[in-house]
Amino acid sequence: MQVSYVTVAEDVDGSPITDHDPALVETLLQRTDGFVWVDIEHWDEQAYRLLKETFHCHSLVLDACARMNHVPTIHAYPAHVFVTLFVPLTIESGRVHRIELDQIIGERYLVTVHGPYDGGVNEDEATREVDAVRYRIVSGRFHPTRPSQLSYAVGSAMARRQQEAVGQVAQRLPALEAEVMSGDLSQPEKLLERLFLLRHELLVVRTMAAQSYDMYARIESLKGRVSDAHRGYAKDLAKQFERVKSVADGELDFLFGIIDLYQTRVTTKMTIAMERLAVIAAITLPVTALASVYGMNVIVNQTTHVGQLVGVLAVMLAISGVLLRWTKRQGWW
User: Fold this and answer.
1) Among 2, 127, 276, 333, which is most buried by a count of CB atoms within 10 Å?
2) 73 with 85: CB under 8 angstroms?
3) Closest by alpha carbon to 269, among 176, 188, 178, 191?
4) What gap in Å lies between CA 333 and CA 328, rounded to an integer?
5) Is pTM, for the whole model, over 0.90?
């Protein structure tokens, strides 16, 4: 757990953000020259007590921070707003982890709670957005004056992370499009699998962006329950996530077009193959029938009757010719 105090006074000497012992949170909350930022990397008993006893969080908030959630959440309370958001992390093609970040946004404090998340997720990836915002404050490139502004910076970083995930898929689409356009249908299963795995990645990110948009649109509508400044930040974040959703929708439409083209080509190839097989079956059917009749035991010949043999072969050829002409007129070949 990292407890920091963000100083907003312009004439303050030293770093605008300083770290403190978690036991000093209540004392820090009494100061008026800044606000408190508590970053909880791992949920434990100490974090539970701090949120319950110091920040007086509702039991629903404590439960949401302790377990893995599956959809974004927003709860508005008199003292703070609780928000749960997700960012994607693609480990391999088609396998996307959802990294959860919970935020408790008050007038004098911001609490960020990471995870829990799936196994295999690197801790640096899980805290990337928060670490980036903190680095901006330490380096003097970002001077938040209120917790909602700091939360806005974290939310913007999460929106960028989602857009990066869309961009990574978009970078792989041209190569797959070229492969589909080349007409190589030798291994349709593998190519279709790659296309559908990409579609899955896009759908995951698109869903995250759409749900995040709904969460911040809800905060924007809470007039009278949250500050106007907070609602203004929420409105801008809603637009950012809506933009990510729109970009993901565009890439999905493009990908669906590629999938439809490839499936159409495979289906057409199979249809043509079935038609040719039908032609072969139609031509060989009368030949097989005549050969079967003459192969019966009830017809016994001691010697070959040349005239009869020629006649039978002529009939076979004639029937086959008629069938070939008929299939040609049907457009089967």
Assistant:
1) 127
2) no
3) 188
4) 6
5) no
